[in-house]
Structure formats: C-alpha cells, structure tokens
UniProtKB/TrEMBL annotation:
Protein name: DUF488 domain-containing protein
InterPro entries, per the entry: YeaO-like (IPR052552)
Pfam families linked: DUF488-N3i
Domain of life: Bacteria
Amino acid sequence: MKPIEIKRIYESLSKSDGYRILVDRIWPRGISKEDAQLDEWNKDLAPSTELRKWFDHDPDKFDDFSKKYKKELEAQTETLKKLRQKTKDQTVTLLFGAKDKEHNQAVVLKEVLEHSN
C-alpha cells in the first residue's frame, strides 16, 4: 500500500500528492475548482450534513464524531474498496477544508482506509 496523506485543500499542490480527492460534502470557500486540481470530489465519503453540523469542528466532540462517522462509512464499502485499490499503485491525498488539521473527517477516513481490508 502506498501512503495515504491528508492535506488542507488550501495548501499548495505537490507532485507527491498523487491522487487528490476532496472528502467534504460542501465545496470549500475561496478556492476555485481549477485551483483545487482534484482527481475526484467524493461527497459520499464525507460526513452527513447532520453529523457535520452536530460536530461543528469542536475538538471536544471529536471522539464521538469519529465513532459516528465510522458508522456512516460502513455504508460505503464499495467506494472505500475502490479508494483502497488506488492506494496499491499510488499515493492518495485526502483533501479537506477545515482549519483544524487534527480533528476532521480526513483524519478518520485515513484511519479507516489504513486499518481495514
């Protein structure tokens, strides 16, 4: 398996990013689709609107958010399987818009991708 990276979508593109996938349900403010240089925008891998609003980027809620989000991801087996397949050949960078680099959905999704079959 090649590395799975996480990165704010506002950070500069790097050749080492490999396959760039945005895992937000809504488009991040202040960046054009051209500037984002995505390979994919997968809203299905993003937390539900209800979960996103409940979490509201509150670090104190992150553990509960993580559990609930993992539960939501259980319904995305085919999508996760396809993304895992991409990691066999290339680096995958999970892109997110949140300011907090430690408490966001990309952190949880990376853990799911790395620790399941």
